Amino acid sequence: MSDTPRAKLSAKHPRTLDKTRAPVRSSGALSRPTKAVPASMLDASGAKKKPAAKPARPRPVNEAPAPAGARRPAGSGAAPRKPAAGSATPYEKRPTGARPPARGQRERVAGARPARFDDESRPRRFDEDRPRRAPEGGARGDFARPAKRGADDRAPRRFDEDRPRRSAEGAPSGRYARDDRDTQPARQARPTRAPRVEHDADDVKIHHDAAGSLRLSKRMSELGLCSRREADEWIAKGWVRVDGKVVTELGTKILPTQEITVVQAARKEQANRMTILLHKPIGYVSGQAEDGYEPAVVLVTREHHWAEDDAGVRFSPSHLRSLAPAGRLDIDSTGLLVLTQDGRIAKQLIGEDSEIEKEYLVRVAYNEHVENVQAHFPADRLALLRHGLELDDQPLKPAQVDWQNPEQLRFVLKEGKKRQIRRMCELVGLHVTGLKRVRMGRITLGNLPVGEWRYLRAGEGF
């Protein structure tokens, strides 16, 4: 027993592990009962005897050992096999005469090939009787390849008088030649087919010179499908059909009674076009840059986008492509400027037959009067501003002109000639000191700050 003291098993005194001590087995493993062995199965030393080997079955003297897996030959002197368990009678040795004949000794059925026996085998063929095998290893007999001819085995050469003549047309000779070829009449040539005439666009092109015909792009613009520029683009892309037939030729004329349709791709592209409302400041031109002034479109950037815009559209540089002003404002004017990619909106605002109202607030001066101009301006001249003036030898449409305050007039026009309000005021003796556009149709400038812009919302219209 080891002298090492044992520690008490508790949380304060954990058991110390001694690696030199062997593990202690349980008492149950030491006291396991063992099976008793009889004394007759033990040898002199007390060990268990090995079982004696089974004696080999006696074999006849003249019988050679059969190979593994071979069947027992019939008529051998070996003892018969034991019957299977549960069998009533043991196996009996059958006499040799009752055994079925061997495979070679069985009788053949009628019509079968007779069996071959050693005494009836074919006579052996010698080398002179055997057909020679081809040198290349081919088959013998009828399937053998012809042997290569030598210089002496060649067939006699045929001369021109012995060779059958070939026809001049290149027809086959010999048994495939036709003797009556020269007697048959020559085959007639097939008549040429007339060129095919296309009639797809005849119903469109025949109206070029018809009375009342007009250009397809103009007709599309009149119907409000798109602008003329957009119509030419759609025609070139093959997106326009007249009476169900595609038209791709620019300048095609049609009758007003013909039906015009456009494909879905054109509708989808048109729906993706943007319209922008800009509060143009003074010092910017509406269209292309001129006289050193920048165009107003340079203000359409992410930085100048109005923070209160609720259109739900994210700015993209593609929105600047083909962006054009619909209604100009002078360099010295400010207010609402519409920039659009949609030709329909442009035609609606500035078309020849447009009826959209444009409202302006105009600050004026009369002679030396800058304040309280309303008190000094004659009423008959105010009536001329409303109707009766001409510009470029053309009478102007009636306009609404009223005093907004003593120094400011309110103009409502349905047309937009170049510098129209300034020129009208000059004709009646007024000098314009300030001009601001505040409304176009139903779209107002509202609280949009100067120099900022917003998108036209989906529910808005002019």
From TrEMBL:
EC assignment: 5.4.99.21
Record SMART domains: S4 (SM00363)
Compositional bias annotation for Basic and acidic residues: 104-135, 142-168
InterPro entries linked: PsdUridine_s_RsuA/RluB/E/F_cat (IPR042092), PsdUridine_synth_cat_dom_sf (IPR020103), PsdUridine_synth_RsuA/RluA (IPR006145), PsdUridine_synth_RsuA/RluB/E/F (IPR000748), RsuA_PseudoU_synthase (IPR050343), S4_RNA-bd (IPR002942), S4_RNA-bd_sf (IPR036986), TruA/RsuA/RluB/E/F_N (IPR020094)
Low complexity compositional bias, start-end: 64-88, 185-194
Alphabetical list of PROSITE patterns matching this protein: S4
Keyword Isomerase recorded: yes
Keywords assigned by UniProt, alphabetized: Isomerase, RNA-binding
BP GO annotations: enzyme-directed rRNA pseudouridine synthesis
Protein's name according to its UniProt entry: Dual-specificity RNA pseudouridine synthase RluF
